[in-house]
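dude i think i finally got it to work??
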Amino acid sequence: MDRRLASLAAAAAVVLLDRLTKSLIKTHFSAWDNLTVIPGIFNIVHTENPGIAFGLLADASNYWWRGVVLIGFSISVLIAVSAMLLRPASVAALSGLLRTGLSLVLGGAAGNLYDRIVNGTVTDFVEVHAGPYYFPAFNVADSAIFIGACLLLLDMWRSRERKSETADI
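look at this
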């Protein structure tokens, strides 16, 4: 399979899984409903986040401004990542780790952008905690973006090591 097509298929799979899980949550849980899956560690909770990661900008007084900034930033990320993944010369030069990371970021950003445009908020539902310490709720798209970013960092670290090895020779 063409590398560009494989990258787009991975991103599309993230968007589909994200849409499916968010639809299931919205269908079966009212806002703030909470289902304990693993006591003291993992809950499913239906929340709507009007802001960005960790609820930043959620309380911004100018709703119009927040929407324009968040949607504009998301579209910019989608364009930049798509350009890297779709250019024939570029995609051949990308490592598998880098292509996978970019595909996950593309799919996650597209999934959350859809929510933001259609609903004005992003549906979050995974809540992880250790006793009284809670991590902010997140979703499949957020997870894909996080994993993709980690893969990008890993690729940068590995390519830096390879460059230093060749420079030492």
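The first strand starts at residue 34 and ends at 38.
im so relieved honestly
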